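Methods — Computational structure assignment.
A single polypeptide chain was analysed. Its primary sequence is given first, followed by the predicted tertiary structure written as structure tokens.
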Amino acid sequence: MLISLIHNLKNYMYKKINIPFNKPTLVGTEKKYVSIAIKSNMLSGDGKFSNLCSSWIEKKLSIKKVFLTPSCTASLEMAAMILNIQQEDEIIMPSYTFVSTANAFVLRGAKIIFIDIRPDTLNINENLIEPAITKKTKAIVVIHYAGVSCEMDKIVNISKKYKLWIIEDSAQSILAKYRNHNLGSIGHIGCLSFHGTKNFTSGGEGGAILINDESLIEKAEIIREKGTNRSCYIRGAVDKYTWHSIGSSYLMSDIQAAYLWAQLKVAKLIQIKRLELWNNYFISMNCLKFFGMPIYPQYCKHNAHTFYLKCKNRKDCDSFIQYMNKKKINVTRHYMPLHLSPAGIKFGKFFGNDVYTTQISKKLVRLPLFFNLNKKDQQHIIYKVYKFIDNYK
């Protein structure tokens, strides 16, 4: 099968000008639902489509309460407020993550304790968490990189032992699973992203906060409505609303929710296509010794969010990126370690040894993977990967 594939690729004439790294998911019915939202005159948050999306996520992921937000960043900021993160609290997380994972807690005055990642999944190394815990530790923040789960059983056991909160940064992992559990449903709070780079988008930005601890629901509702009990007023529980706590404006507009609803309605179709593209890459390249392939343990069911290759060193990675971009195929690195950044040095520290975080960040490269990527484009990408290896010295 593989020999046949390569033969077809070598005989494939391609005239495409440019293949981007990403295009936001587009299923064709977004305008229809956005138009309905506009005509309803309910343009602000928590309208018809916000409720449809929230209910869909609650049911699909088995979440007690879901609130749509303007972004995953906003969801993380909400999580820090809900859990009353304060000055000098310590938050344990990987350094290999997006800046919002740390920034949300730094905004509350917390100190970030970065630890190393695993070399296989690129997720937080669960065996390094317990040694990093002090009397000041308040929470563990995990990120399920590329839609591949962290080892959550051990992390949950640690959180119970030390009475720590768990926040799942599930920005990349909607519909992915750890054993039989949906990612985002395991920790006390989960945070989703509907950014234009994610499997489902609400039109560029967007997110959701997933509340799995019932005791946190009312507090989340108040913080999300600028610190007021406005939601109680809308439900008719009170005759007027007032200011109760700190908070901010964390509602997604119903226009964005309408855009998102068009995609959630065909979520299965989107996932089938993404998994097909991911598997095409994996099957075509798994025989290549030049690159390391993505690895996911048996306890994981990934969601085809990202397909990456691991080069042997920085030089090979730089050469590969330069070659592919020259061929007008946009490939890209991913995170730069937060603990090496100016803000990371100021607001946090790295606990233990940086064995894998920096090393992997220097040699990882991501290939284009998005719902509207057609098979011919993907064949061309695979062909150029092979051509690079043939020509590289």
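Note: The first strand starts at residue 65 and ends at 69.
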